[in-house]
Amino acid sequence: MKLHINGEEREFVDVPAAFTLLALVEKLGMKPDRVAVELNRDIVPRERWSETLLNEGDRLEVVHFVGGGC
After folding, report:
1. Alpha helices of 1-70 — where are they, by DSSP H?
2. Neighbour count for residue 8 (Cβ, 10 Å)
3. How far is CA 56 from the centre of its chain?
4. Quick one: which of 27, 17, 21 has its CA closest to 60?
5. What gap in Å lies between CA 54 and CA 22, rounded to an integer?
6. Which terminus of the chain has a lower count of CB atoms within 10 Å, N or C?
7. How many CA atoms, within 13 angstroms, populate the side-chain half-sphere of residue 45?
8. What gap in Å lies between CA 51 and CA 20, rounded to an integer?
9. Residue 48 carries which DSSP code?
């Protein structure tokens, strides 16, 4: 499956037919509580990640939260 993530095309092999947004976040090695995801220009609430199926050519923006400050 080919997906566009943060403007870069990436190919994922050996993924299940029902490849979910949660499975993608886990496959990318990200902590679900530290990212926000936009799928095809819509922000997907974290509670819907496990039921949100990805399709060939989907465009995602994944934003990683970083702590810090002065």
Report:
1. 21-27
2. 7
3. 13
4. 21
5. 10
6. C
7. 2
8. 6
9. G
pTM for this entry: 0.88
Name the pLDDT band for 64 (thresholds 50, 70, 90): confident
Q: Can you tell me the distance from the alpha carbon of 8 to that of 60, in angstroms, rounded to the nearest whole number?
A: 9
Chain segment 2-12, per-residue pLDDT in tens: 999 999 999 99
> Bridge-partner residues for 5, per DSSP?
8, 60
Q: State which amino acid sits at residue 10.
A: R
What end-to-end distance do the CA atoms of the chain give, in Å? 42
Rounded Cα distance, 66 and 57, in Å: 28
Mean pLDDT of 46-67: 94
